[in-house]
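Predict structure. Input: Scavenger receptor class B member 1, 477 residues.
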Amino acid sequence: MLLLFIISITGFFIMWFTEYYNDTMLAQIILKNNSESTKSWMDPNPKYDTLLKVHIFNYTNIDKYLDGIDDKIKVNDIGPLTYKEHTTKVNVSFNKNHTVTFRDRRTYQFLPEKSNCEEFDNFVLPNVPLISASTKIEKINRFKKFMAVNIINANNERAFKTLTAHEFLWGYRDRIVSMDIGTGSTHFGLLMNRNGTSVDSLQINTGEDDIRKFSTITQFNGQPLLDFWTDQKCNRVDGSDASMFPPHKLNTREDLQVFLQVLCRKIPLHFEKEVTILNNIDALRYRTPLNVFSSPEENPENACYCHNTQVCLPSGVINATKCYNGAPIFPSFPHFFSGDPKIYKDFEGIRPLKELHQTYADIHPRFAFPISGASRIQINIAVHKSSILRRKVDRLEEGTILPLIWIEITSGDFTDEIIDTLYISTFGLNAIQYALKYGTLFACIISFALIVGGFYNLTQKRRQHAIQAQRKTKRRP
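Output follows.
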């Protein structure tokens, strides 16, 4: 009985006053070479595939606007075009410092039943290669610049052109790109580099030496820091890739950091509230703060994203030119949500809404992986009116930001099997934890009561024996 009490009191102490149970559960997600969790991370089951939803801005009156007939540029948000995205890890290498290096390989399947338009529908769109060349051409040698200007003029390249959605997103052969003005390619497509094996490599912490470092990026393309921004703080890459987070941060509700390759910078996620999703599964909701793309006047933390320019951009966009090989790409939230209205003052059809355009994630409270949510970003291009573009877009102001597409990445359909797995990882493990906690407490009480009862009975028996012995002594002559 004493042994039972010692075991139960030890179990009680472990379950009530240590993190042993939680640490044991979290040990299952640590990335170890050839472990089951690592195999699932490298090549996840297709039932967990995410959805990539693309909205394209169609310019419906751009000729009339440029000719001075219409007062504003009319754009229609067309979409989504929905694709199933399957991601695997390739070139995986486990390192001695408890990190793993890898590249993402993505494949896409168009889902017409989940789309509001077809891949081969036509759209009137900004001529991204031409607008990019207008910026890059000022930095190339004189001979190459002369040749490029003549070819562009000879081909009568227009500032806006008609393309199918498939061409614009996944690539088409372009004459300007083929001139190799700093691109090294012959084709252009906004998402072309996303399809297939990524050119970028990531190195993350496996969590094997310290679970608090789990999933934190340690290197991007072999470097611990970027060289895009103006100080070390903004060049740091030590966030997550958004597929998983350090679990301990959820306990304190501190900000989560996500490193977005599309921005070449980290983005914070603020804890908003506890939520229940998918038939009462608990989750923690995190959102991007509204001042992520604010000007330094509104958010001093963003001062290092100004590229040492005298005048920083208005709130709502970020200059990611260095991240895109010199192309003037200026990402934002969809429809310039939370941005300064003067960014889109010349546009009709821009309607920012929090419910549709802000990023959020519902994260598993124990294992720190996103259960559901929506990652949303918009790709825009800025107009630089150089010699090859000035007369083509005379009415556009220098620096006008033209919206191209916005994308939304969400979880796929939740099958019964997925929901069952989430139930087990939530309610099942919680039930086991509570059973062990209160089971050891009950065992302590029962074993202690039995020990006390046994001691009492032993004392009573000894007492009775003593009384009986005393009586026998008195009866003797």
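The chain has one domain: 50-411.
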